[in-house]
Amino acid sequence: xxxxPGVQRLVVLGDFLHAAEAHAPxxxxxxxxxxxxxxxxxxxxxxxxxxxxxxxxxxxLGARIVDEPWSxxxxxxCHHPQHRAGRWVLAGHLHPTAVLYGGGRDALRMPCFLAEPxxxxxxxxxxxxxGHAVPxxxxxxxxxxxxxRVWALP
Length: 154
Fold this sequence. Notes:
Elements: E1 9-12, H1 25-37, E2 42-46, H2 49-54, E3 63-66, E4 70-72, E5 75-77, E6 88-91, E7 96-101, E8 108-116, E9 119-121, E10 132-133, E11 141-146, E12 149-153
Parallel strand pairs: 1-2, 2-3, 5-6, 6-9, 7-10
Antiparallel strand pairs: 4-5, 7-8, 8-9, 8-11, 11-12
C-alpha cells in the first residue's frame, strides 16, 4: 500500500519490534532496504507495550516516535484500544480475529477489523501475531480479512 500514489505517511500502532532480540543484523538489513525503497514516506511509530522492552528502532530509520494518543485530524492513534472524547480511536494491540467455522483445532480463524462506536481496532498479519478471538456483540461490527478481500460479518 505504501507504493500507491499519494501515500505520504505510514503510522504503526505500536509493537514495531517485539523484543530487544529483534535488533538482529538480518532484520536491521531488511529494514534498511525497506526504508531505502520508501525514503520519502513519513514513518510514525506509536509506542506499544512491547516497544518498551524492545527499545526504539535505530535513528537511521528516520521514524517519528510518539506516545499514545497521537492526534491526527479526527483520529487518536493509539496502541491500546480505548475511548477518547471527541475522537475516533484507531488502535492495535488486540490482534482481533473472527472464528468463522467450527471450533477447537478445526476452527477457521481470520484476522478482522473490530469496530465499535468511536473505536476501530485494526487486524494484525503475520506468522507471530497470534490473535484474540472477538465474538459478535451488540454495537460491534467485525470485518474479516483474507485472500485480498474484506467481508462484513453478522
